[in-house]
Batch of 2 targets.
Target 1
Amino acid sequence: WRNDPACQAVERAVRAGIVVVASAGNKGEKDGKMVLGSVGSPGHCPFAITVGATDTQGTLDTADDTVPAWSSKGPTQDGLVKPDIAAPGRKIVSLLAPGSKLARQFPERQVLGSGRSGYFQMSGTSQAAAVVSGAVALLLESRPGLNPLQVKLLLQGSATFMPQEGLLGAGAGS
């Protein structure tokens, strides 16, 4: 990652106080076999919050959630554990971009409405990264003083942040 220009840009952004969320990639399986070390750039950068996908099975209960085989997995070529977090990324429904290349290529993925009132369904770690980006925005809105590392640790459930006490280590209360 040290020689990757995208990772160097991510590191500069994080050092400037910007939280960077990256998708892990969708290469976790090939020919029916698990592919370890398949997290791509810039997801393999230690400064990025790298997001893998989960399949919610269409339920609200997290007990039945699974990681789809296609969601890329670490360790990275540098031996880093990635992804950092996983979020819903299978069969995610969002706004349709009428006339877009995706809408033209995959008309069967339009699930509701039409035109500017339409919805489209997709799967992938990019969908999961969007979910995490929303969580980051909400977290920063409620706690604007957080730095990128604090955001990453809080999202992972690795730490608790108390404004009056600073960042506390793993297992330090809730």
Note: Helices lie at 5-15, 101-105, 125-142, 148-156.
Target 2
Amino acid sequence: SWNLAKEYQKSQEIAPGTLKGFTHAYLRRWDIQNVLTILRGKVQGEKPGKIKEILIPAGSLDKVVLDRLLSEESNDRIIELLKGHRMFPVLAREFPAAKESGSFSHMENELYKQFYYEILADAKAGIKGASAFLSYIQLEIDIKNAKTLFRLRVDAQTDEDVRDMFVAGGTLSVTDFTSLDSIRDTNEFIEQLKVNFRNDSLHALLDELKGQKGSLSDIEVRLTRVQLEQMEKMSKRNPFSIHPILVYLEKKKYEVFNLRALARGKESRLPSEKIAEYLVM
């Protein structure tokens, strides 16, 4: 975790010109993950030191701020301390219900939707190099929505309105998203996904999934591989854009995640083939 944070911080330092701003904006996602990790850890009664081990201080909330949040006893106080941060309006609106229900999933969805709304605004601001940034963010949103649709097919009993799980700004509209979710036949669902997503690599993967009964984790990993493959292509087409930086940030993330999965899998004595299902290579 600390190695990943260090590399991310270094990337922000050396990124030139406007690319520094795009890099900083992109890494704000770690603010969401870190705050949610702290809130969930507090609810589960984890010790601050244990929570700290998995934090990635790579966003706007640095190590000092995260340590301050960790020192608080109550989640209400943690939310209060974030007043003035761009996440605060969503946290203030959603936390009471999350506290009552004991689940942070809806609040998490709302935080990421706000993140993508803000980052899309940055990408559409007309700044030099923003079009390359926009193309990647839209790709990421498409892959995220595709993963959510597959997850909904596995967890059909969710009580949450599927529209609340949709992220705007990509290829799909909310109407497309809900329509796709309503299709029960797997092959029909895949064919309709292909109609909505005009991406050759994604089409090839969707064709492979026809008739297969892969696990959700396997499907998500394969969708991630498509995303990384498309990022590589963007990077080669635009070597002086934000794309090479984003490729590095994502590959570094999955390098660390793979090592973590291997370590935890071995510690839990899982078979190698089971661990391999969770690796992004």
Note: The chain has a mean pLDDT of 92.
